[in-house]
């Protein structure tokens, strides 16, 4: 591919004229992948700090679920759409870099918390910062790669999610173990609790990615480095976005709500399985993080890339809803692997099913954004990704961890029964997700065709 490769008219206006070189596109993909890794690390770090934070700040499982899930999800969703409208018109590189700085500093600031509300406030900052990344990255990747390579590029980017989960668990486990044995004392702050030092240590290194972002090409820029009217896509009025949603409501409702339900199982498990290993098998949180991190660093990226390849394989074979097939399979198989994990009588019996379950947790990380790219008109892509991630976070991140904590506290009334709480949430989530994915098959192809041929109804 040369630096002036021309692509089909179905791409965005700026991409239709010129693409950066292959090296520039791959550099951008690599930086965005790293950003995704660090964003998931900062998001998931609390899953190994549940016990230490509860002991220090005296909160129950339900409130930890609120901290880990609902607070993050609510503000992520509220910030998502206004940010996405900026992304669809502005300099995505600068917007993403700003988000990276915000969430990294907010994660580090969590380590200074001495009250529960301090942590809640810091999580708001993490949520708003991370709301930038997924719509911005998917929009940018879609302009940097030709349609034939876009699915693979999004799959590689999606692999950053599980690498972030696995790397975050591994790093958090090691850092927590170190500072548990070697407490850190700082001037003015005194001796910090190990969980506080861990949050600071995980948050600050991500600022390195902010510097790398300034080498990422922005196809909308002219030679002077500005986003001009000629280089930016036309602004799409909100009424046209809503009109497209109404016309294709069956497709968007079934895909987005189905993904949200599936992710209630994913994020509920990701938030609480470390605590399940601690409570059921007597592990320490550092041990749980190290083992889960190693498992996820190996199995999860292979899962994301493999499932994305499978979806692309079916699409190349003429199956328009190939990615939906993958989602249907994942929603059926996840409960089959999670059940023996959560009912295992010993850790050695649980670990093989943990590897399979972890792989299925992340199997749709690349598939989900690829589905939205297929059914969203190019000038609206950032807004549809924001809608997708907003609902995904409200249902998945917002409900999953809270539901597990609430069932443990108020239904089973037994902290040791957290495995049953996880199993209940997983089964309900997948029973809801699978029929929705099946329903989406009937309208998906038509919506994809409408998105490809969409033209604005009004001049801007």
CATH top level class name: Mainly Alpha
Report the C-alpha radius of gyration, rounded: 21 Å
Shape: globular
**What is the spatial order of strands in the main beta sheet?**
1-2
- Which regions contain 5 or more consecutive residues with pLDDT less than 50? 1-17
Distance between the termini: 33 Å
Largest sheet report: 2 strands, antiparallel
SS field, number of helical segments: 19
Order of helices and strands: HHHHHHHHEEHHHHHHHHHHH
Secondary structure class reads mainly alpha
* Topology-level CATH name: Growth Hormone, Chain: A
Q: Return the average pLDDT rounded to an integer.
A: 84
CATH superfamily: MFS general substrate transporter like domains
* Overall helicity: over 70%
CATH architecture: Up-down Bundle
Percent in strands: under 5%
> How many beta-strand segments?
2
Key words describing this protein structure:
disordered N terminus, 460 residues, globular, Growth Hormone, Chain: A, mainly alpha, two-stranded antiparallel ribbon
Question: How does this model look, in words?
Answer:
The protein has about 450 residues and is mainly alpha-helical. The chain has a single domain (about 20-215, about 235-455), classed as MFS general substrate transporter like domains (Growth Hormone, Chain: A, Up-down Bundle). Helix content is about 75%, strand content about 0%. It has helices at about 15, 20-45, 50-55, 60-85, 90-110, 115-130, 135-145, 145-180, 195-205, 205-215, 240-245, 250-280, 285-315, 320-345, 345-360, 365-375, 380-395, 400-410, 420-455; strands at about 185, 190. A two-stranded antiparallel sheet has the order 1-2. Helix 12 packs parallel to helix 14 and helix 14 packs antiparallel against helix 19 (about 420-455). The longest helix has about 35 residues, at about 420-455. The radius of gyration is 21 Å and the shape is globular. The two termini are about 35 Å apart.
């Amino acid at each position: 591919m040369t630096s002036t490769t021309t692509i089909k008219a179905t791409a965005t206006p700026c991409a239709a004229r010129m693409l950066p070189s292959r090296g520039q596109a791959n550099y951008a993909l690599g930086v965005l992948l790293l950003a995704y890794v660090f964003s998931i690390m900062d998001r998931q770090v609390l899953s190994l700090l549940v016990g230490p934070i509860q002991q220090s700040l005296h909160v129950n499982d339900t409130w930890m679920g609120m901290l880990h899930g609902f607070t993050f999800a609510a503000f992520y969703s509220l910030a998502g759409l206004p940010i996405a409208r900026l992304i669809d018109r502005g300099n995505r590189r600068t917007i993403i870099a700003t988000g990276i700085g915000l969430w990294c500093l907010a994660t580090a600031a969590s380590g200074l918390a001495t009250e529960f509300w301090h942590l809640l406030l810091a999580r708001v900052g993490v949520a708003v910062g991370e709301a930038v990344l997924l719509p911005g990255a998917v929009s940018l990747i879609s302009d940097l790669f030709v349609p034939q390579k876009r699915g693979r590029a999004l799959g590689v980017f999606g692999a950053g999610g599980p690498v972030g989960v696995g790397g975050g668990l591994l790093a958090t486990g090691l850092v927590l173990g170190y500072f548990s044995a070697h407490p850190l004392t700082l001037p003015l702050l005194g001796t910090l609790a190990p969980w506080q030092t861990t949050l600071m240590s995980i948050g600050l290194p991500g600022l390195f990615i902010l510097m790398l972002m300034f080498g990422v090409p922005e196809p909308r820029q002219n030679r002077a480095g500005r986003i001009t009217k000629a280089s930016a896509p036309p602004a799409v009025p909100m009424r046209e976005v809503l009109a497209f949603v109404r016309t294709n409501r069956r497709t968007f409702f079934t895909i987005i709500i189905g993904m949200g339900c599936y992710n209630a199982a994913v994020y509920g498990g990701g938030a609480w399985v470390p605590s399940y290993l601690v409570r059921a098998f007597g592990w320490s949180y550092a041990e749980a993080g190290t083992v889960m991190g190693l498992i996820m660093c190996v199995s999860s990226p292979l899962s994301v890339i493999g499932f994305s390849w499978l979806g692309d394989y079916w699409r190349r074979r003429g199956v328009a809803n190939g990615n939906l097939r993958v989602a249907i399979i994942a929603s059926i198989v996840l409960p089959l692997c999670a059940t023996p994990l959560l009912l295992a009588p010993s850790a050695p019996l649980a670990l093989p099913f943990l590897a399979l379950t972890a792989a299925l947790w992340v199997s749709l990380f690349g598939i989900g954004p690829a589905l939205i790219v297929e059914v969203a008109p190019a000038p609206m892509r950032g807004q549809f990704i924001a809608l997708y991630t907003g609902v995904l976070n409200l249902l998945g991140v917002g409900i999953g961890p809270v539901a597990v904590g609430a069932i443990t506290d108020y239904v089973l009334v037994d902290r040791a029964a957290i495995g049953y709480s996880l199993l209940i949430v997983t089964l309900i989530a997948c029973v809801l997700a699978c029929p929705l994915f099946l329903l989406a098959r009937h309208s998906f192809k038509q919506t994809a065709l409408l998105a490809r041929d969409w033209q604005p109804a009004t001049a801007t």
